[in-house]
User: What shape does this take?
Amino acid sequence: MIQFLIKRFIGLLFVVIGVTFITFILGYLSPSDPIREIMGQHFDQARWLMLRHAYGLDLPWYQQYFNFLVNFARFNFGTSFHYQDRAVWDILKDGVPISLELATWGTLITLLIGIPVGIFSAMKANTWIDTTNMSVALILYALPPFIIAVFAQVILVQINVSLGTQWPVAGWGTPWQYDWDSLQNKIVPILVYAAAGYAYFSRLARTSMLEVLRQDYVRTARAKGLRETMVVYQHALRNAMIPLITVIGLLIGTLVAGSFFIERIFNIQGIAAISVSSIFQRDYPVIQATTVLLAIGVVLGNLISDVLYSVVDPRIKTE
Amino acid sequence: MDIRDQNPKMATSPEELMPDTGSVIPPADLLDLPNVPTLLREAEDVLQKRGKEPESPLKESLKRLRRDLRAMVSLGVFIFLIVLAIIGPPIYKSFGATYASDLGGPIGPSVYRDYAHQELSKQDQGPSAQYILGTDSLGRDLLSRLMQGLLISMVVAFLVEVVDIGLGVTIGVLAGYYGGWIDQLLARFTDLVFAFPGLLFIILLTGIFGNSADDYFAKLPVLGSFLGNGNARLVIVSLALATVIWPLMARYVRGQTLQLKQQQFVEAARTSGTSDFTIIWRHIIPNLFSIVFIASTLNVANTIIGEAGISLLGLGVQPPGSSLGLMISDTLDQVEVHPWEVLFPTIVLTIIVLAISFLGDGLRDAFDPRSKD
Assistant: This one.
């Protein structure tokens, strides 16, 4: 177990180095000169050289990369190119709580609704309830989040028009505050954000539950006359949860990808929105910081999923 | 001279001529087999009664696919959309009356139904004889932009699939057949690609190299006219999408190759002295057909979503070019006033994505009936 974890951790370290290297080298190879762009019309050679030196851009690439790594390890993401007096962390600080809130609620709803619906569907297998549930899940799973988001917005607009309500179509409100105004802003994006995960988990929960219900020990439990609720909740459910728990970590990847579109469509100023706008501003330190942060989140998710897998199912041996 | 005369030790008894199966006694089920010639005769009788040749697996799969109504409808829709993207614009531009333009002078349908033509006095119009689906906030024909967006989606999907299948099959077969360092390299690379969120990589690549791609590709001699209109970033987007997608294909192919390598017909080919290249070309690659076909169909949906998503974030196709994602992005701030403008590209995208997903599911059921969940 410990050996397995250490092995996974070393693998993870390689991935993090790979991710930081790709992020760094893409910025380094970039054909546009950020300093020149900051200076714009006020370009002059002496100040250009001075600024390059100040940002450390005149060093050879391996030295720049080394500095980049060292600073990163100290959580020092450098200074923004675009807002010259602001540290990168200062810019990210506004977005992180919003994205975190969106992700937290998205995950909770995904799990708390998706899994029970899937299990319920499995128990009603091949009835109209099951068919409807699974058709909805199939469609939600196939569609990308931004399509669902646009449909939600259009429906919201129609509701506003026909009922004369003033439900906000975009925006977020204060992070982690749940008065009525903020709630109105937050409910729809969170539901849309959770939709893809919901579809995935309810489908997986259904398949997994059906698989377990076919097992011999479930038949034994039924044969000895246990009540059906007892059979399902005491015997089958625990084993059906194994594949579900192991993919929870992978959810982070989906959430990160989804956040770019949800934040774009609903005009939410989270970390993904900051990342995209920093690309337009050629603000490399901000781009690099957001990319590496999000990538580390995904990698950690993979690690969590591996660990959970070996905890839940001890048959997984270290190879 | 008989070869046995030179080597008296050479086996002559029928038992010793039997292939070496590893055990002296053949497995029990082989011994229990009834008289083989009788069986063959019975089989021939059955075939003659049905009066036809045994069907190839491909034919049987296609037959199963043809029975799948949802998949066939999806296939029809998909083909219709491809045809619409290619021959729709010339047909649409060929009819229609002449209208007065706000820049003065009458203009024909080939001008005002161009996807890039702006008519600033006719913004956000509803459907009319001039603009069948109406116009957007810059007075551009929505139907023309939709068809151009479809074309872009198809072109990107095609480009990405070419790279995906080419690289994925080549590397996957080599890694599966030879193992060794290619396999190691592929495993490390796929680990990295799976860990690095694909979307982030694409955003990074298009964001950083997008501007210079615009300058570079617009100057190319032949492609320049197509790529110049804000479409230059498609090349970057396609490349980035392909980079992220091919390792998965390679992994599927590698797994399948590993299985095929163990099969008896490959062993037989190798025993009879067939070269590695011929084995791969004649025996392995044809057997990869169904897995590559299914995986690439499902990939097409992901690719189209990917391109639309990148364009939606403003990193893909640039105005005045058109793409379904860019149309959503352009019309999004109008959602409270003119919701249909954002609804059209979204519905078209929904139809494509669902059609391809259903088709992919149908293909999987038809070509690999055991994989049903």
Remarks:
- Chain B has a mean pLDDT of 76.
- The beta strands of chain B are 99-100, 106-107.
